[in-house]
Amino acid sequence: MSGNILTLLVAIPAVAALLLAFVPRENTGLFRIGAAVGTVATFLVSIVVMADFAVGTAEVQMIESKAWIPEWGITYVLGLDGISVLLVLLTTFIFPLVVLASWEHTDRTKGFFIALLVLESALIGVFMALDLVLFYLFFEIMLIPMYALIGVWGGANRRYASVKFFLYTLVGGLLMLVGILYLSFQAGGSFAYADVLAVDLTRGEQIWLFWAFFLAFAIKLPLFPLHTWLPDAHTEAPTVGSVVLAAVMLKIGGYGFLRFNLPLFPEATDLYVGPILAAGVIGVLYGALVALVQSDIKKLVAYSSVAHLGFVAIGIFALQPTAASGSVVQMVNHGITTGALFLLIGFMYERTHSREIAAYSGLMKATPIFGGLFLVSTMSSIALPGLNGFVGEFPILMGTYQTVPWAAIAAAFGVIFAALYLLWAYQRMFHGPIGGHAETMTDLNTREIAVMAPLVVLMLAIGLYPKPLYDIVNPSVEAVIQQVDADLAAVDAAATEAETALEGEDQ
User: Domain NADH:quinone oxidoreductase/Mrp antiporter transmembrane spans what residues (predicted)?
Assistant: First the structure.
């Protein structure tokens, strides 16, 4: 395999966007074709990467390293492990579907598809970057196209939602940048992840660095109470913006916790596990209860994301391998399921221009294909056994119970509430006599079914046989948790030795 295949993954959508920038805006068909070719080619390359990825090891693989700005200690380093490879594959899988779902988009087509391609390139880069400056650049670059998608092609309150999204994420990123610069100074001027990982930090240094990174990723996840930008962004974003945001971008938060917070700052992680788990549990319950009272189906699904991603935070900070692996798999599952729900809501909105739950009745009779696909996606979201949501949430709860029983018990109520708000909304919209907008709504067409089919297949395939995903994820996650445990054991041993020496001096 080529030594630059990871670079190729980042470059294909970026080059496609650059080429489309020179196409006259009147050639709208070329923008669709160019975006489709760019995203499909990227997905095919990611399949090659996945086929060459060695399962069963925690080692970072396919490392590409080149001197970039050596006088500043900045290196161009890309690599993949069991955590990042699944998120890269999820990203490259989602974007061709997003392009196909947007095939009939006619509003400023050129900028729209270029923004999607730039966003894909930046997101792939975030999950593969192994230099902290390179990671930060990808982390910030992706804000621009997402800001444009919400602010230019969003709903009535798009300016408010886009500015709120941008400011929240920008502030978090700037805090992280301060932490990155400090770590580089401690690593002798290097920004390489391996060099930073080897730095010996005092407990005090770990605490404030932990929060510099944690806030950036907690905003991105988002974790309660830093979630308030998300419902606005989801509600006002165009359909594809909501899909990419839910399916991929939010996963950077969970990825960042596992890649940076836990391995770099183990003492601080152990110190703040309690409050973070409490925030995760509150997020699960709060998101579910607020979703229960929504009248807008899109906003309901947006708040459900707050609840589902609370599970991810709980699984990671339970510091237990089963729970943490479940969190990574749940990030993939959430991307598939919530992405599917947002797509279906978008297809509905394109036909009726309404997302009000009360404006629909009897959709299952009026649009059986749409109703059936929405039902499968709903059941996946409430973690029905046999579908993908279950094989993520159940290991999280099972693993968390082993280390923090109260968090698992409290979070389990979120599963019950999810069934309440989703099934109640489904019952009101899809059952009963045909009424409201359902009277004139047409069923999904061939293109829309083609968009949904791969997502539904994955819901079933992962739900029935999740072992391949866990085989990929487990070694890398276990290595992180074991390293945290080893670091904490070393600190305890040093403290015990110091106490013993002090007692000896007193005697």
Answer: 129-415
Span 359-381, pLDDT tens digits: 999 999 999 999 999 999 999 99
Exposure b/e, 360-388, CB count within 10 A at least 16 = b: bbbbbebbeebbebbebbbbbbbbbeebb
Residue type, 337: T
Q: Tell me, what DSSP letter sits at residue 74?
A: E
Residue 378 main-chain phi, psi, to 5 deg: -65, -45
Instruction: Return the closest-CA partner of residue 481 out of 333, 326, 311.
Output: 326
Question: Using only C-alpha atoms, what is the Rg of the chain?
Answer: 23
Q: What is the DSSP string of 397-445?
A: HHHHHHH-HHHHHHHHHHHHHHHHHHHHHHHHHHSSS-EEGGGTPPPP-
Amino acid sitting at position 244: V
Q: What residues does 77 pair with on adjacent strands?
A: 65
- Percent over 70 (pLDDT), the chain: 97
Side chain identity, residue 76: Y
| Phi and psi at residue 269, to the nearest 5° | -60, -50
Please enumerate in sequence order all residues whose Cβ is within 8 A of that of 287, keeping only pairs 6 or more positions apart, or say none. Answer: 224, 227, 303, 304, 305, 306, 307, 308, 310, 414
Specify the pTM.
Answer: 0.93
Q: Is 145 helix (H, G, I), strand (E, B) or coil?
A: helix
Q: Shortest CA distance to 317 belongs to which of 330, 327, 332?
A: 327
Going 340 to 343 to 347 to 349, the CA torsion angle's sign is positive
DSSP 11-59: HHHHHHHHHHHTS-TT-HHHHHHHHHHHHHHHHHHHHHHHHHS-TT--S
Which pLDDT band holds residue 487 (cuts at 50, 70, 90)? confident
**Exposure on the CB side of residue 33, measured as CA atoms within 13 A:** 5
The two structure tokens encoding residue 391: 């094989």
Q: Which helix (H) or strand (E) holds 117?
A: helix 109-128
Tokens of 428: 């009101």
pLDDT digits (tens, 9 = 90+) for 253-305: 999 999 999 999 999 999 999 999 999 999 999 999 999 999 999 999 999 99
Q: Residue 1: pLDDT above 50?
A: no
Domain ranges of the chain: 5-498
Residue 11 has φ and ψ, to the nearest 5°, of -75, -35
Q: Indicate whether 6 pLDDT > 90.
A: yes
Which residue, chain included where needed, has tokens 């930073």? 196
What is the rounded distance in angstroms from the CA atom of residue 28 to the CA atom of residue 461?
36
- φ, ψ for residue 475, nearest 5 deg: -60, -45
Q: What is the dihedral of CA 353, 354, 360, 366, to 10 degrees?
A: 20
Cα–Cα distance measured from residue 451 to residue 244, given in angstroms and rounded to the nearest whole number: 14
pLDDT averaged over every residue in the chain: 92
Mean pLDDT for 150-168 is 89
Looking up tokens 């609840």, which residue turns up? 307
Place of tokens 């992962």: 462
- pLDDT tens digit string along 20-47? 999 988 888 899 999 999 999 999 999 9
